[in-house]
Here is the input.
Amino acid sequence: MRRRTAIRNLVILSAGATILPACQETTKSESGSSNLDIGPSERETLEVLTESLIPSAANFPGGRTLRSHEFVISMVNDCAKPEDRTAFMKGLRAFEDLCKKKWNTSFGQAEPGMRNELLKQLESMKDSKEDLAGFYKTVKRLTVQSFTSSREFLVEVRNFTLVPGSNFKGCVRIGAALNT
Here is the structure.
């Protein structure tokens, strides 16, 4: 083996050994988020809430199909300030408590009519400083953001095409274009 080949292989191997640990997934809690302590029942509540906000239609996916609840969890976990995450979790727990006081069941187990009644009640809350109202407004905003940035919405509703579109001509000689 030649010396240059051996040195090159050594450099590649050591660079790979250095970069490999950075490519591994960071350890997260069981809920998939490192900053939020969301259990399975809370995850289900968020899943049903996003589905209630954007229900599935016959020809179009809803919040559950688009996994909007995971988007909400990721955005709050990764982008919110620590005090906003704390308020979000307090609001989520207050939301679950409200459902249990009102119906003696969770939001996911309630009838769709009862869910809609509760959502109308939350929609009418004006004080966004309260944890419950802030939680609902955050979930609603992020669910709509998840829906409007989905492939289905962009392609089927907005008729989005990739830039530069179908009329792009990438192989045109510049000199020929200037002479005409």
